[in-house]
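Fold this complex.
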Amino acid sequence: MEIWSAEIRQSVLLTVELAAISTAILLVLATPLAWWLARAKGWWTEIIASVVALPLVLPPTVLGFYLLVLLGPDGPGGWLARLWGARTLAFTFEGLVIGSVVYSMPFVVQPIRNAFAAMGERPLEVAATLRASPLRTFWTVAVPLARPGFLTGAVLGFAHTVGEFGLVLMIGGNIPGHTKVLSVALFDYVETSRWREASMLAGGMVVFAFAVILTMTLVDKRAARAAA
Amino acid sequence: MRTAEPARINAAFRGRLGSFTLDAELSLPATGVTAIFGPSGCGKTSVARCIAGLQRMADGFCAVDGEVWQDGSSFRPVHRRPIGYVFQEASLFPHLSVQRNLLFGAPKAARAQITFSEVVELLGLAALLDRSPYRLSGGERQRVAIGRALLSQPKLLLMDEPLSALDRTTRYEIFPFLERLHETLSLPVLYISHDMAEIERFADHLVLMEQGRVVGSGPLHSLHPIPLAGSRDRLGDCSRRRKSVGNPTRMTSMPIDFHDIDPNRVAAILYRPQDDVDGLLADFAQDLARSGERIGGVVQRNVEDGAGCQIGMQAIDLMTGAEISICQPLGSGAMACKLDAAGLAEAAVAVTRAIAADVDLVVINKFSKQEAAGDGLRDELADAIAAGIPVLTAVPEKCLDAWNDFTGGIGTSLLCERGAIEGWWLDLSSRMKRARAARAPAEAPAALLADHHVG
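Structure:
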C-alpha cells in the first residue's frame, strides 16, 4: 500500500521504540520513588512530589528549553555524550528518551504512589510478622497489591510518550530515523500540505488513544470485580 | 522487670503515643494463654504491638524466654522475631489463595513444630484451601489468619482481639477452634481482649490494664474469683454456700458474668422475698440501659403512695425507656400488681425488639407469677436464648416452682448466692456509678476489676 510508506513506517517504529524504552525506564525509576513518596512522612516529601509533578503544569516548550540546555554540548548531557565520542545528547534518540522520561514521570509516579498508599500499613505489617524481610515484602506483597497502579502508570507513560510534541521538537528536532516521531511527522506533513498522510496519521492516533482509554477502563473494571 | 528470664516474657514500655501515655511493665510466664484485659484505649493493643516490634518505643525492653528482643541499645526488627500475630481483622493477602496465604510465612526447612496438615485439621480449613480470601466468610478468614500465624512456627502467638470484628454467631463458631488450639499446642499465647467471657474461656493468666498502665497481673482465678453461679444441677452447692453469705470475695467482678450463666437457659437469681433483688435488678438494668449499655427487656417495680404503701406496679421497656401501660386500675386508687394480657403482649414485643437489636443482655423481672398468661413471653425468651443472647431475671424463693413451670422447656440456670446477691448488686451499682462518673461508660468494667482486686 502506497500510503504505508517507508517514511511513515519508520516514524511509527521509532515512536513505539521510544515509548517502550521510556516506559521501561520510567517504571524502574518511578517504583522506588513512588514507594518513598507513599511512605515518607517528612515535609520535604511534598516538595519532591511537586518537583516530580512539574511537567504536568509547565508548557512542554519550557521543559524542552531547559532540557536542551542541559543536554547540549555545554551542559552535563554533552559531557556525558563525550564518554562515547558524541558531541551532544540534544537531537539524538538518547536525548529524546531522557526528555520523555522527565516529561512522563508524573503520569507514572502518581498512580503507583496512590496504589502503594491505598494498601495501607497492614499488609506490610502482616508480612513482617510472618518473617518476610522488607525486600521480600515489597516484591511479594506491595507490588502485587499495587498492580492496577502499575498498569495505569505504564499505559499512561506509554501513551504520553507517544503523544508528546512540543518537547520532542525542542530537544529532538526532526531527523528521520532518529528523532522524527509520529507527532513530529504529522506536523511535517501538514507543513508540506501532504493531507492524505497527515489524516492517516491523525486518524491512527485517534484510534490508538481510544484503544488505550478503553483498555484501561476495562482493566479497572476487572480489577474492581476481582476485588469484590 | 528489665531482665531477661528463661521461660518468661519480660517487657517494659514507656513513652507517648499521640496524646496517650504508655507506661507498662510485664513479667509473664511464657506458657499457656495470658489475657491482657482492659477497656478500649487502655493501651493493650500498643503493648502487643511493642512486643511484636510493630511499634517502637524509645524507652522499651522486651525479652522472651531469655532472648532479648529490645533494650536500650538494640531493637530486633519484626521479621526477625519468632512471633505469630493475629490482627483484629483477618488481613489476608487478597492476591493469594487460602493455601498460599497459609504458607506465606512457613519456613522452607522441614523442622516444623506444627505442620500444614495439622493446621488444616485443627482449624477445619480443608474445604477452603483453593478459595480466594474474597470468597470466605468473616469467621473463615479469621481461622485462616490464625492458621497462617501458626504455620510461621512462632515461639509466641499474639492475638489482638481476634474475635471483636466478628458478629456474635461467628464468634461462637470460632470459640471451639481457639479452645482446641489451647488444648493441642504448647505455644504461649498473648490474648488481647476487652471481653471477659472470651478470656474466661481460654486464659490461664490475666493482665489488667488501665490508662496505659498494668494494674494487675496473676493467674486468672486469683484475679477473678470463683464463679458466682452454677447450673440447676449445682443446686446442692448453693445450699452450702448460703453459710458464707455476704463474703465480698465471692462477688464476680463483672457486672453480669455471662460465662457463669448457662447460655441455653434463662438465668435467674434466686432470693428471699425480703431482699428485694427484683427491685435491685430493675435499678441496675435501668442504670446500665441509661448509660448506653446494649441491654433490653422489661423491668417492673412496685409503685408506692406517699406513705410507702404499695398501690400498684410500673413496667418499663429497657430499650426505649417507655412505660408499658399495663396497670389497670383496681378502683379506690389501687392498680393491679400483675401484667394483663395486653401488657404481656407489649412485654413480648419489647423482648423481640431487643433480640432484633442484638443486645448483649435481656433482663426481665417480676414475671414469676405470670405462669398463666405468659406463654407468649416464654417463646420470646426462648428466641433470645436461641439467638445467643443471655436472659437474666430474679426469682423469689417461694416462686421457684411457678417459675420453673413458666420457663418449662427453656429451663432455668440458678444463680444461688441468695443473701450475698444483695450486697453484690448494691456494691456493684455504687462502684459502677463511681467508675462512670470518673470515666467514659465503656471503660467501667475494667475500673471495677482493677479496684476490686488489685488496688
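Residues 189 and 197 of chain A are 7 Å apart (CA to CA).
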